[in-house]
Amino acid sequence: MPYVYDCDHLHDRPFAEVTALVGGKAANLSVMAGELGLPVPPAFTVTTEACREYLAHGWPAGLDAELAEHMHRMEELVGHGFGDATDPLLVSVRSGAPVSMPGMMDTILNLGLNEATTAGLAAVSGSPAFAANCRRRFEAMFCDIVGGETVPPDPWAQLRGAVEAVFRSWNSDRARTYRRREGIPDDLGTAVTVQAMVFGNRSVDSGTGVLFTRNPATGEPVLYGDVMFNAQGEDVVAGTHQTEPIAILDDKLPAVGRQLREYAARLERRYGDLLDIEFTIEHGRLWMLQCRVGKRSPQAALRIAVDLAEDPDFDVTRHDAVMRVAELLADPPRVATERTDAGPALTTGLGASPGVAAGAIVMTPEAAVEAAEAGRTVILVRSETSPDDVHGMAASAGILTASGGLASHAAVVARGWGIPAVVGAAELEVLGDGIRIGDRALAVGETITIDGGTGEVFAGVVAGATEVVPEAATLLEWAHALGIRIGGEPIPAALATPVAAPASPGSAPGVPVQTGPDMADLPGVLLVKGYATPESMASALLVSADLAAEALDRLVADGLAEIAAGAFRLTEEGKAVARERIAAATAAWGPDNAVAALDAFLALDRRMKATVTAWQMREIEGEQVINDHADPAHDARVMADLAALHVDADAWLGPLVEGLPRLAAYRTRLAAANAAAQAGDGRFIASPRVDSYHSAWFELHEDLILLAGRNRADEVAAGRA
Fold first, then answer.
1. What are phi and psi of 387, to 5 degrees?
2. Which of the following CATH numbers is that of domain 199-296: 3.30.470.20, 3.40.30.10, 3.30.230.10, 3.20.20.70?
3. Which residues of 469-497 are buried (b: 16+ CB within 10 A; e: fewer)?
4. Mean pLDDT to the nearest integer, 490-500
5. What is the CATH number of domain 334-467?
6. What is the pTM of this model?
7. 397, 357 in Cβ contact below 8 A?
8. The domain 1-197: what is its CATH number?
9. What's the pLDDT score for residue 206?
């Protein structure tokens, strides 16, 4: 199988598999360019398979030749030469994971510049200043991301270094933190998209921007985003520059504004959802660089679901709308309706993520995590945030930044996580030991309140009243009429099993008593999970969250575990103890039995992957699209497949439990998740927010790999995982 594909390549496979192979960015580029005929710069993509091979064994054999072949095709399409000193082709190198992780991995722009090509760019553009600006940006990004103090002059060496850097960024601390928060598997890898550069920093009628097809904070059906003229893309998302609202295009470049609205509407109808779109304008010509389903606040998610279901231009039913937000309806978001009189606001920025939050000022992500671990509520205050701050953002009650716009990193991540945020508070000065707003100084530890709806910032705690967003009532009424289970409604008696112990939050209702892991197995369970909360450990151990918390606290006291970013993980000593106990379990069970169990699991695993893919995707007119659950017959077939898989998996797992009793916990969890899914709660198929069938299955697979004395990286490289 090739390691590189052009972005207009027609893949003879389901869309979900295409996304897994070339990443969401490239899959969506093919929709924009190939299906809708939108203006997209030529591009090619290095696959996630190449990333996994690189991370496991180093640079893949044959990849250099494939890169040269596809670069030659790009040269023919754009009429420039890569490394050509007279008419140079420059490229961007961007990450593109199968699941959207905005800002978490690395990007390099303007790649291909050296002394000769910079002079060539100055000549063909007629602007030495523009060429110098591109060179400065490129060298700064390259040295920061790839490393080293100098950039190699050979463009091909630059390209290889950039691709390797993007591959490595999959395992960066910020990417790992984001994946833990979002429940994204660690073994997917990232693709790398290489795209011909178009330049937003070329002239006053050039620019770059990010827009959402609807307001991702409130759900209001208006274009929402930022644009910056004579700039490049990272200037907008980094939050280091003040941007202008997207509506300014109607005044400055009205033809571009009209095109952008048209393209945004076409894309939103195509995907049937809120989209996040990146674009560049070069000399008044619009180029579409990326689209993806956009992050949104819980409040916006509910309004968008209702609006799309009631709009005849969208093929979204009321059933679809409820299923999209069923998890949120179990505990609907609230909005502030009134505030106590707190006097005038200290300052007003941009309300980027709705909600009111009060807490002590902290200035670093590490301080936010430390405070959260101590049980204190904090507001993280930064000049701007970067992907390196995500662990602190996740631990904060709210986020306040001095710069950045509505599409900045802080805004996007906060909305996706439902954290109140105010950005672009221009009067805010971030100092070493506190902040200053006008003539008011506030030290670290003093309390402020932010209103992510209005953008206001107040000193002290501002009390107020809240109410459930009105769309929740509409959606709950639809759910009732359609017979859709929401939240904690009981499983029908025919499918319920007796409950032996209090279920932890997110576990399937009706978890039966079976022999499972005891507390001696706790290090091994935590090794499989990587990071865990007491609630997720309770689901794995089949005990209450209180008992799981006590056991985890004992691990911490014994030096075997530590708390990081609000979750428990093993220390190096703890990992050694866990591996010793797993090795002892393997010896007692028999190494041949462990290997045979893993080998037998693989056929079932292929069926499981197909079932999850079918639940998440379905075919419409010969094309795989996101499953909006509007086809009850399709979903019924998937449920039947899951039920059949479970019968076979349970029959396979039963005899194994006799040899290794702790595997019974997986049998119990799988049975409970299957029962919940068959009762109508689709979350229990693959949602990472509950103890779903996929969650228990993935951990069983990881456990079997460890028991067999193997590792996941080797299994992935061998095509077995």
1. -55, -25
2. 3.30.470.20
3. bebbebbbebbeeeebbbeeeebeeebeb
4. 26
5. 3.50.30.10
6. 0.59
7. yes
8. 3.30.1490.20
9. 93
